Predict the structure.
Amino acid sequence: MNTLLIKNGTVIDGTGNPAFSGHVLINDDRIQSVFQTGEEPPPSDAVIDAAGLAVAPGFIDMHSHADWMLPREDHDLAMKCLPEQGITTIVGGNCGFSPAPVSEKMRSLLGTSHFKLFNDRSLDFRWMSFHDFLDRIAKARPIVNSAHQVGHATLRLAWAGMHEKHLSGDTLENCLESMVRAFDEGACGLSFGLGYEPGMHASLEELSSFCRAAATADKPVSVHLKALSRLSPCYPPTSLSSHNVRALKEMIHIAKKTGVRLQISHLIFVGRNSWSTAEQCLELIEDAREYGMDIKFDAFPYTFGNTTINAVLPYWFLAGLPESHHSFWARMRLKIELAAGFRLVGFSWRDFQMMDAVLEEWQNINGYRIDEIARKWRMSPFETMLKISRDTDGQAVMMFHAYSGEPKNEKVLDQVMAHDLCLFETDAFTRYGGYPNPAALGTFPKILGQYVRQRRSFSLENAVRRMTSDSAERFNLRDRGTLTPGKKADVVLFDPETIGETPVVAGKPAGKPKGIIHVLINGVMVVKDGNYIQGIRAGQVIK
Ligand SMILES: [Zn+2]
């Protein structure tokens, strides 16, 4: 018996109910009881005085890419920024890619860019089934709790390879069986990554088959839509409606037909000319909801996001690699297409910022925009981008800007964040080196500081509900998300008067966010006075 009393805090229990002053009693790894001030709690082995602090359930990162770090023994070095911003649970396996299951057939693909994308050191992939993978993570003792979706792209790679156009017959059956097996072994949902190979090749019938099988297993589907901007390489340029709107409509249609629970991943509007489609997209989601569909979306509070340098290259160029880098005609065509594409989508070379240039000798360009690097190197921005793509084998990690807004023009982002169906995510790669994505450091504190305290866009109770119980509900994480008796003791204590995002020092996000005081995971203190306690790994694999 090991009890801990968190005393005299402002309890925000995650249900959305009004905050109240009270105490939370934890017994071992679970919440035993919650008291209002005035009620006398029983004596406990230890006490934390939470006077002046908010006491809330640990935050759930709805959409993380840090799951790729978890198999590593020393992942805490790259991931401590998550508990330090109040995150106690991540949901992984996003955008179509999960590290499992692995088949013999796909072993040769594991060294390719897809599988190196999310991790700056390579994984050994000494697992095959989803069960083996979760087992490996449990053995590495995760720094936070982790729930894992199985990726549609991974299933396709396991059974069909990279370039297969339409899955049918036995191949489709194998993928579906493998998905259901992953569910049985602990996967919490299925994810699509339809803007990337091989997910982009899937027909609507194929996607329907996956959704139908997920619905039968009572699992949700999350989707990185086929297009996130007005124009994309995934539809013909003659398509009448905006590509992102069309992609959203297609997915809603499939979900309606199959009855699957649908989570739209990172609802972002990429490029300046896409911002005006936000209204229409939000309406489509609201209408679907009104129709009775179980649909929500998630977003991060920044006008930029991390991806790889090759995300800027069209499919035909990538398919022709490595030869396309050396073909005069391919480069010429690319130059013309990018110039036209940038103009139509509303991008400039300044919108691309280097996060991790991968090569030792290029670490001094991390943090710089492509136009700045071009000036340094005395090359055109186009040649600069191609050189980085070629010499890093597409591994350079970039921050793309002009997502749903830009500094001093965040109207669209604000509208998305304030929406009651919006849940919160970092969408961040956590890495050992390079320039950090501010989202990995300060997403949740930024929302609580900027949107709640400074702008009063929504209440603290509403924000916490969307950071906790709403997210737990999406993925059936029954033990998490509220401060109620019987739930696992994932708790964050923060100062609502000071909480805020990670400060930027000399142009670089540095240090820790403000106002996160203590964080408990499964009843164990992991962050004390704002600092991760070295070596403490109290997370669990959620099945
Ligand atoms: Zn994605």
Q: What stands out?
A: Residues 94-95, 224, 265-266 surround zinc ion (CB under 6 Å). The mean pLDDT is 94.
